[in-house]
Amino acid sequence: MSTKNLHIGIFGLGTVGTGVVELLMKKKDAPGNYHFILEKVVVKNPNKKREIDVPSDFLSLNPDDILNNPAIDTVIEVIGGIHPAKEFVIQALEKGKNVITANKALLASYGSEIFNKAVENRCYLGVRASNIAAYRIIESLTTSPSKIEKLIGIFNGTCNYILTEMEKKGESFSAILKRAQEMGYAEADPINDINGYDTAHKLIVLLGISLGYFPPIKSVYTEGINNITLQDVLFARELGYRIKLVAIAKREEEMLEARVHPVLIPKEKWLARLEGIENGVEVRDEIGLEIGMQAPGAGKYPTATAIMEDLICISRGRGLFFPPRKSSITLKPIEKIETKYYLKFHAVDKAGVLAKIASILGDYNISIESVIQKGKGDKRKENEMVPVIMLTHRSREDNIQKALKKINDLPEVEKNPLLIRVEEGIF
Ligand SMILES: NC(=O)c1ccc[n+]([C@@H]2O[C@H](COP(=O)([O-])OP(=O)(O)OC[C@H]3O[C@@H](n4cnc5c(N)ncnc54)[C@H](OP(=O)(O)O)[C@@H]3O)[C@@H](O)[C@H]2O)c1
């Protein structure tokens, strides 16, 4: 068998780029008589101290050293952000080069354009590293003969670490976040993780490759974990649940439900048991087959390994199958979903208040499964507010929203009660 080579150019030598270069230096040969040959690494800052010794003639500040280098047939983009990553990816594809990217933010915003470019130019587009919680099942999402009915995943290691540690250590959100930053589990600016956008980007990429449609980010209901307190984590535990930030996609006839928000999951369920930076995804198809995958949510080697898997696919001549591009799919508005709800009110600790709340919920067909009220009995001060937790039976979100608006007007109840949806998971 003749030997063929993949000539690789990498944009970026940060956390992920360094991992890829290390793995490439360790393992040049791919199964199937291919060699991986690193030609160039383009970076931004010429004088930065690097974690890895890369010969100086490999490093460049000039994107043309990759884009206009006919010897390079495969480009790895690990710089992040939208610009100039998008221009590098598009230009590489236009020049007939295979592209591998870990950039979920870019794919979530311009996935359609980038995938079309790859198809048009008959190039391989590798996206496994954009969602490493799911990278080993990405191929089955694109090739499964039966439609996916439901997908639910924990896609953000920072959030999962914070929520796990809150429960285990009994410490506040901000104390755990600070420690996560010190330990390198959270970025200096973790806003995209905490507010749910990183999870939403990863969901959009999975939808794009499995359905041929990348929903616009503004159409995917996205809520982060900013409002979750230690008190909620502990109340959830008392009720037999754990709080997790999840991405959910469900097909219902021709409508698609796609949303990202914290949920209460029964604590014996598989997703509820994923702890710390661990991520995972479970999928059920229309004939009831269920598959899942667990992986660390981020990090140098897990991400670099997903990129290596794409390199191996290129070396074996295996392209990702893309479903026909769709121009739109109708997304179900969040108001139309139906699930169980955890509701937390702060209400004056006196007789009759609970009954008033329950009566408004009843007016909107919302029945209550369980209640926790932490009254202070004889020790209470006049008009002191105490938390009241209610777990509802399945109800429609629009009814819940209308009832909460009415409850908001009660003088005995603090404004803006907390709502967390309940999710049963797949396995
Ligand atoms: N970190 C993870 O665990 C992880 C996991 C999954 C996916 N990802 C994704 O992987 C990508 C890279 O993440 P990272 O954590 O490795 O980022 P990073 O550590 O910040 O590294 C970014 C690299 O890109 C280079 N760069 C930035 N702008 C550039 C430009 N205009 N031209 C050339 N090079 C440029 C930087 O150059 P200098 O070194 O010269 O500054 C740096 O080497 C992102 O899309 C991220 O979302 C990361």
Tell me, what's the shape? elongated
Structural class: alpha/beta
* Helical content class: 25-40%
Global Rg: 24 Å
Q: Give the second-level CATH assignment, the architecture of the largest domain.
A: 2-Layer Sandwich
Distance between the termini: 45 Å
Strand content: 25-35%
Main pleated-sheet profile: 12 strands, mixed
Total domain count? 3
- Stretches where pLDDT is under 50 for at least 5 consecutive residues are none
What small molecules are bound in this structure? NADP nicotinamide-adenine-dinucleotide phosphate
The CATH class of the largest domain: Alpha Beta
How many DSSP H or I helices? 13
pLDDT averaged over residues: 92
Q: Give the number of DSSP strands.
A: 19
